Structure formats: C-alpha cells, structure tokens
Amino acid sequence: MKFIILGCGSSMGVPRPDGFFGNCDPKNKKNYRTRCSALIKTSNENILIDTSPDLRQQLLRHNIKKISKVLYSHMHGDQTHGINDLRSFFINSKKQIDVYADNDTSKYLRNSFSYIFKSYSKEYPATLNLKKLKNTIITKDKNKTINIKSIKVAHGKVKSNCFVIDKKIAYISDVSEIYSKDYKYFKNLKYLIVDCLWYNFHPSHFNLEKALSIIKLFKPKNAILTNLSPVLDYKVLKKILPKNIIPAHDGLTINL
C-alpha cells in the first residue's frame, strides 16, 4: 500500500496564479505546490482524498488510470473544484464512481455540480454516485483488510474530516482544532500528516507552532507538514524542524 501526497499547497497553490512565490525560492522544485489532494493506492483500489482544482495535473503526473472511490474532507473549493476531472474515469469504466461526503459537503456538491449526479441525456449521464461518508471505509491490500477511519475536526467555522488509515497514518489537511475525545486515534502512529499554513495565527488552520505542539502531543514516528502557503519555503522550514518532521512536497510517497 502507498500513500501519495498529490498536492500540498494552500488554497491558491505555490506560486499563486499571479506568479507570487512569497518567501519560496522558485529555483527549488519542492516549492511548486498544487492544491491538497492525496491518493491511497492498494493492490485493489485507488482511493482519492479530495478533488483539488489541480487534479488533472496531479493524476497525469502519477499516471493514474483508475479511481475506485473518492473521500471528501470538506466543502471548500480547493478540495472540491476538480470534481469534473473524474468524468474521464467514468468514460473508461462505464460505471459511476462512488464519492463519499458528509452532509454539508454533499449538499454543496449537489447544489454546485448537479449535472454530475443527475442524468440529463444519454450523451451526458450522471458520472458519480454520492454517498454518505461512513465512520469506517474498508478496502483491501492483497489479502489484508484495511480500515480507513474518518474523524471530524474543526476547520474554522466549518467541520472537516480527516482520515486514519490502518492505524498507521493520519491525514489532517485542514484543521484548526482536534477534539480531545479523538486524541486516542492519533497517538503513536507511523506517520502524521498535518495542516501547517504559515508561521502566524490563523482562525481556520494550524500554524507552525500549533502543528509542532500537536505532533509533540501525539508522538508519531514521523510527521509531515502539508497545506503550505507561499510564506513557507521548503529549505528554510526543513532546516528548523526536528529530524522526524519534514515539509511535504508534491508527489511525496509513503510506502506502508
């Protein structure tokens, strides 16, 4: 099983569409960041977490030929607006792809992308099947059952879902608070991938100080910082982090 960080950039990516790199050195390829999406790749399935606006570019880069299902963290545009790029996988398989979302995200998707979930003509059938995000999603890797647990966290004024895969790796891309009742699911993992927008306080995201404090609390073997804004240069950030913590970069792949 592999976990691939397809994109690790904040809502406008790095550089932003206007070419703004902020503090990031444009000579370092690891500072070129598409918006956050991730892929769980097993022997049986490719499970996508979020459909970023950069999804087409991300899937082409990794030569992804099929998507088995999609798990949505929340409703924001930088997690959802690449949804139309899933259509090509429907064309190939002739089967609707199951996508899983919580109630608020489902409502947003239906309102914003109704043509994807309803058949209007033979030429333009529904391509996706929207389902309620369960507490546990089950997949298989060879003969082994893999449990993916979804857990709600605060993300400013909305809720977001994070995912703990096989009790080994947690993916928390957008978070301002993790509820104490759920701490037990995040302790002593092999990998903790966590939101880290920039250095200063932000009402909807962890900053560096908060990300480091939560890593210290949960004690993973390794931690990876994601959702990185143009404020955070890869090399500068890596230099100040403990050895078991690194900034994410697009395409970072974890073998499990």
Care to give the gist of this entry?
With 256 residues, the protein is an alpha/beta fold. It has helices spanning 55-61, 77-80, 87-93, 103-112, 114-117, 208-218, 234-240, and strands spanning 2-7, 37-41, 46-49, 69-71, 97-101, 128-132, 136-141, 144-155, 158-165, 169-172, 191-195, 222-226, 245-247, 253-255. The chain is globular and about 55 Å long.
Would you write up a description of this structure?
With 256 residues, the chain is of the alpha/beta class. 20% of the residues lie in helices and 29% in strands. The strands form two sheets. It has a seven-stranded mixed sheet with strand order 6-5-4-3-2-1-14. A seven-stranded mixed sheet has the order 7-8-9-10-11-12-13. Strand 8 and strand 9 form a beta hairpin.
Structural class: alpha/beta
* Percent of residues in β-strands: 25-35%
Number of helices: 7
Characterize the overall form. globular
- Termini separation comes to 5 Å
User: Measured on Cα atoms, how large is the radius of gyration?
Assistant: 18 Å
Number of strands: 14
Pattern of helices and strands: EEEHEHHEHHEEEEEEHEHEE
The main sheet comes to: 7 strands, mixed
Please state how the strands of the largest beta sheet are arranged side by side: 6-5-4-3-2-1-14
- Give the fraction of residues assigned to helices: 10-25%
Question: Runs with pLDDT <50, length 5+?
Answer: none
User: Taking all residues together, what is the mean pLDDT?
Assistant: 97
